Amino acid sequence: MVDLQSQYEKIRDEVNAGIQEVIDSATFIKGGKVVEFQKNLETYLGVKHVIPVGNGTDALQIALMALGLQPGDEVITPTFTFIATAEVVALLGLTPVLVDVNYDTFNISVEAVKKAITPRTKAIVPVHLFGQNADMEAILKLAKEHNLYVVEDACQSIGSVYTFENGKKMQSGCMGDIGCTSFFPSKNLGCYGDGGAIFTNNDELAKKMRIIANHGMETRYYHDVVGVNSRLDSMQAAVLDVKLKHLDEYILARQTAADFYDKAFANNPKIEIPVRNAHSTHVFHQYTLRFDSAQRPLLQKALEEKGIPAMIYYPVPLHLQKAYKNERYKEGDFPIAEKLCDCVLSLPMHTELSEEQLRFIVDNVDLVIC
Ligand SMILES: *Cc1c(COP(=O)(O)O)cnc(C)c1O
User: Is the full-model pTM beyond 0.70?
Assistant: First the structure.
């Protein structure tokens, strides 16, 4: 699905020098490299605060911890996403309220959010799934009307740009109260281990989140709140600082591959290609097709025989996962998410795809879905 070796070959000298610098300085935790990367990412995103943390799941957890929510408070999030989003809500004793998504964009349905709001609702966590921003204009408006926090799960969408009705452009993860991202190796900006970051323009929330991520302490060994231990280490920051310089190039490479797929599949009436939202650029963390669910196992098998990886993101919506099943939800409650789980398939998508590889993948898909 990804080709991190070929990508590394092109930046080997820069990355190795960065890592060597960290080893020579022996500042492995909270070193200068982390601050350097933090500043560079703040500049890239045009956001006031970047708080580097241990991974994307921690980023979401720390964000929710900073909002001062009480047990039982409700947090609305889509049922078609990676588990981390709802996991941290449940872990903190909050109530995940799941809602359906839009068939076209895979992203949270604003109509569904509207219907799910109750007096206990405190926050909305939209997920910018597969690299395209959710309908943030409508979500922010709704949140304002109901006095709700918005925490963006931008783990798949770093670098995606959203355009508001008034023409204002903003980076994914920098529009709500807080945004969270992951630097997991296969993410669009990935390190060589685990990593993540939190974004905010709110000084007070930034301060709180820095304290929470550092054992709840501001002054050493004085703990004012219950915190966690979550930090990006210096070696990962060194890798990320190099890759950040190439992020726009990487995004372009993904978009070029997506354009190739789009054009090639446009002639196939049995395949629905990803729909691009007019208000957001798409950074294609995943390139996800939809087609007749009966054919999916056949296609997966045929591709596997040709050595072409293809993955189902995601096979089961959150409301039907064993850990999240409860009296609130049953099969049929979120028909769009359930249908998507049956009919989606993601093709290889990364920065190093050649036209020859893309052609080979397309031809093999067309052989089965016809
Ligand atoms: C990857 C991902 C996460 C979690 O990030 P980790 O760094 O793996 O903890 C959360 N939400 C979404 C949508 C993701 O894709």
Answer: yes
18 Cβ partners below 8 Å, 6+ apart?
Answer: 33, 238, 239, 241, 242
Q: Tokens 């070796």 label which residue?
A: 5
119 C-alpha vs ligand 1 centroid, how far in Å?
A: 29
In tens, the pLDDT along 271-296 reads: 999 999 999 999 999 999 999 999 99
What is the best residue among 91, 184, 194, 228 to mutate for testing ligand 1's pocket, by most ligand atoms within 8 Å of CB? 184
Using CA atoms, how far apart are residues 47 and 210, in angstroms rounded to an integer?
16
Q: What is the pLDDT of residues 81-96, one digit of tens each?
A: 999 989 999 999 999 9
Contact by Cβ (8 Å): 264, 287: no
Helices (DSSP H) in 67-202: which residue ranges? 84-91, 110-116, 136-146
The C-alpha atoms of residue 258 and residue 110 are separated, in whole angstroms, by 26
Whose alpha carbon is nearest atom 5 of ligand 1? Answer: 56
From the CB of 99, is ligand 1 less than 6 Å away? Answer: no
Would you say the CB of residue 131 lies under 6 angstroms from ligand 1? no
Separation of alpha carbons 295 and 66, rounded Å: 46
CA distance 138 to 336: 20
Burial class (CB in 10 A: 0-12, 13-18, 19+), 185: middle
pLDDT in tens, 340-349: 999 999 999 9
Are residues 317 and 129 in contact, defined by beta-carbon separation less than 8 angstroms? no
